[in-house]
Write a structure and sequence with these properties.
alpha+beta, 4-stranded antiparallel sheet, 8 helices, 24% strand, DNA-binding
Length: 267
DNA sequence: CGGCATGTTGCGCA
DNA sequence: TTGCGCAACATGCC
């Protein structure tokens, strides 16, 4: 379920379990998720090290280790970290585990990923994927002038640019779709045709969608999927604002829903 | 059975 | 050279 708000929830959880703790065991056998790298290297990099912090930028997580090493994690489409009892057996989709101790307390976190689109990367420095990320809208806010400049560079649909991780880190199909509904802008609108006022609406729409999702995620009991969206996944349903049936198109291979009345196509 | 899915990468083509 | 669209990845759900 990972877009920025979900990854932030995972970060908070991991930070609470791991920060200041020492890794007693770490293992992953999954050669698809452990890219690039071997199972032996994963354990070797982590065991005996203290975790100093769990950071996030966009959809990437970064565990900083006491010896300067780093573990990067991308959740892909179905990745998730959960805490389990240290003695709990691995469930079917468990792809990695990290066991720690802090004083007398022992705890264990497991990486679950049914589809295995996620990644775990051990490195000494920040990896290129991390360095290529644009500002994180939650941590850094949104610079409207910079966004306007990036949108003005091409005729690509505004939704595509919002999902470009180098433009804003962490915006996925859900947030982009919801933000444009809030902004009352057709997702297909070419970026360079947006007025400054429209870019401001986009930035505000992102903020609204982001705050709404963070609130829902933080208030949720656990990792259960909750459909709290205005238009995402609601093709055919009435628009919450004007009751017009929501339409669905495919943009760059991604399902995109919008209200044809509130988000009219422009000439 | 077919269609769809929150993400990223890489390829072929204009 | 740049920028697209689109398939692929692996699996589950409706």
């Amino acid at each position: 379920m990972p877009e920025l708000p979900d990854v932030e929830v995972v970060r908070l959880r991991l930070d609470g379990v791991l920060r200041g703790a020492t890794v007693t065991a770490a293992a992953s056998k999954d050669r698809r998720i452990l890219r690039p790298g071997a199972p032996a290297g994963f354990g070797r990099a982590l065991v005996g090290r203290k975790v100093s912090e769990v950071a996030r930028r966009g959809k990437w997580l970064r565990l900083a280790l006491g010896d300067g090493g780093r573990l990067f994690c991308h959740l892909g489409m179905t990745g998730w970290w959960v805490e389990r009892e240290p003695e709990a057996a691995a469930e079917r989709t468990e792809r990695a585990r990290i066991d720690v101790r802090r004083g007398r307390a022992r705890r264990s976190v497991r990486y679950l990923d049914g589809r295995r689109f996620g990644r775990l990367v051990v490195a000494r420095d920040d990896i290129p994927e991390w360095r290529a990320l644009g500002p994180d809208p939650l941590a850094d806010g949104i610079d409207v002038d910079r966004l306007a400049e990036l949108l003005a560079r091409s005729r690509r649909p505004v939704k595509d640019t919002l999902m470009d991780q180098g433009v804003l880190a962490g915006i996925g199909n859900i947030l982009a779709t919801e933000a444009l509904w809030h902004a009352r802008l057709d997702p297909r609108t070419p970026g360079k045709t947006l007025s400054h006022a429209e870019v401001v609406r986009v930035a505000r729409g992102l903020g609204t969608a982001l705050r709404h999702e963070m609130k829902v995620r933080l208030g949720a009991k656990d990792d259960e999927w909750r459909d709290v969206f205005a238009v995402y996944g609601h093709a055919g349903a009435p628009c919450p604002r004007c009751r017009t049936p929501i339409e669905r198109v495919v943009l760059s291979g991604r399902g995109t829903t919008f209200c044809p009345t509130c988000q009219p196509e422009r000439a």
